[in-house]
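Sequence design from tokenized structure. All designs in this work follow the same two-part layout: the structure record, then the generated sequence. An example of the structure record is given first.
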């Protein structure tokens, strides 16, 4: 007997991609699917395209639940979708991405045969134009035993489309079926609670495709604006992380431990981002903060000194190489 899988697709002005994403669910070799599409106030042809698929789903014996609402942002769209979930397992799909064949079946079968797991993740493809590359290539990332720690340290991707979660576990954490209605950080809100002190399995096969679209800007004013927006968003992600952490535990040791982990990830990411924007002053600021955590690495020092003190960076590279040779 197949377990019912609920798939939520939040949608906002995605007419260019909906045939691909909805079609990838429709073509799955798994019959017990409940597709929930939340149209978050689209002003394009999204609704028309969704309705064109509804009859095809019904003819195939699949459920397609369509909900239209005023624009509430991604978090609000997910919250609406969660109210309609009736499956034993749940997964999300962005409107501009797609599942590969077997994606739902293989993850559902994994959960059915691994009752000790609260969820399962898989590999996937990044796709940008003609290029494609795997999410996960290193064995240590494939063999992560503590996903909560790995997510806190930024050691693996948090794209929800590669995960499938047990609904009962998820709704134990969110009994009112509401995540924080933020416009960012949804993936962390879905994955962190399910992985906290729980086991999450892994399927070493790409089962989803995540498309990267070129939104690059060339003008200096645009670059400055992007830098400011990215910095604000990054702070928003950190705020969401600590909201989730405080929701999961009141233990002061755990709060300090995981807080340090995520702060190191945040400082490192911001340092590298500022180096990319050639803002050395801010990069040095984040490096200084990173050093206050226990997770500053020799590679972090090489990154900053490659710009601020190249001779020292060269010395550190030699030291790193010697350490790697000793490990062998």
């Amino acid at each position: 007997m197949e377990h019912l899988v609920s798939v939520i697709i939040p949608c906002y002005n995605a007419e260019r991609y909906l045939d691909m994403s909805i079609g990838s669910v429709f073509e799955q070799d798994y019959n017990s699917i409940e597709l929930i599409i939340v149209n978050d106030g689209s002003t394009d042809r999204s609704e028309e395209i969704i309705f064109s698929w509804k009859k095809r789903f019904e003819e195939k014996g699949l459920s397609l639940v369509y909900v239209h609402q005023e624009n509430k942002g991604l978090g609000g769209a997910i919250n609406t979708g969660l109210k309609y979930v009736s499956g034993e397992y749940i997964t999300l799909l962005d409107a501009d991405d797609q599942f590969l064949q077997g994606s739902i079946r293989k993850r559902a079968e994994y959960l059915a045969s691994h009752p000790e797991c609260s969820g399962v993740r898989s590999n996937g493809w990044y796709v940008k134009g003609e290029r494609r590359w795997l999410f996960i290539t290193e064995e240590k990332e494939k063999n992560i035993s503590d996903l909560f720690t790995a997510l806190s340290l930024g050691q693996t991707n948090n794209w929800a489309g590669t995960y499938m979660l047990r609904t009962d576990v998820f709704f134990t954490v969110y009994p009112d079926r509401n995540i924080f209605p933020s416009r960012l950080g949804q993936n962390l809100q879905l994955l962190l609670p399910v992985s906290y002190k729980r086991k999450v399995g892994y399927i070493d096969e790409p089962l989803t495709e995540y498309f990267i679209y070129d939104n690059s800007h060339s003008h200096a004013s645009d670059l400055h604006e992007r830098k400011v927006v990215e910095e604000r968003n990054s702070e928003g992600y950190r705020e969401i992380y600590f909201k989730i952490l405080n929701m999961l535990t009141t233990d002061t040791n755990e709060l300090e431990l995981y807080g340090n982990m995520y702060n190191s990830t945040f400082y490192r990411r911001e340092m590298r981002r500022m180096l990319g924007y050639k803002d050395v002053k801010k990069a040095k600021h984040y490096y200084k903060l990173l050093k206050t955590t226990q997770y500053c690495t020799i590679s972090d020092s090489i990154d900053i000194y490659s710009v601020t003190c190249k001779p020292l960076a060269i010395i550190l590279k030699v030291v790193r190489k010697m350490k790697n040779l000793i490990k062998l």
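The chain is about 50% helix and 20% strand. We note this feature because it recurs in several other targets discussed in the main text.
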